[in-house]
């Protein structure tokens, strides 16, 4: 009997972890993520690895301070612990998107992985809706264009790929940027005089959704 393919997702951490386990988990993420994701690029509203490392150090200090059983120091420790889980979840989602859910990369991230049957994933993805690029117009700055993308239900963010080659050749498409919201999406640092094609998809809790039709545009 042939087994079904497996789809991989990140585990964001268990709230039942001890403080020591959470510190160790966060340390693995701080070390692992920079090996697979560009930490120098703009992560938008996603916490950076440097911020995660700083919060880890704050939590470690808070754990030590809370040993005095002071009520205010214990409360502060709980608040930092909650924020650490929030940061780990946001960074985890970002890493999944940036790596396109590639298991060979995700296994190096420091996050534990969980696996889903691909058939289950395929059935879930079949219900997801593709966003549409409704327009792309000139921006205020040279090499800048502004696309308008409609919002689709349950999308956590939107991922744009572009190509300056044949849009019918899948290998020509490259990840351009991930946006947290639909609407007017600014695309910067494009080559003046170059013609591009763009496409967009929503990223959902279940995984990436279907692609929109490609949209061709010329940069002035």
From TrEMBL:
SUPFAM superfamilies: Fibronectin type III
Superkingdom classification of source: Bacteria
Stated name of the protein: Fibronectin type III domain-containing protein
Organism: Geomesophilobacter sediminis
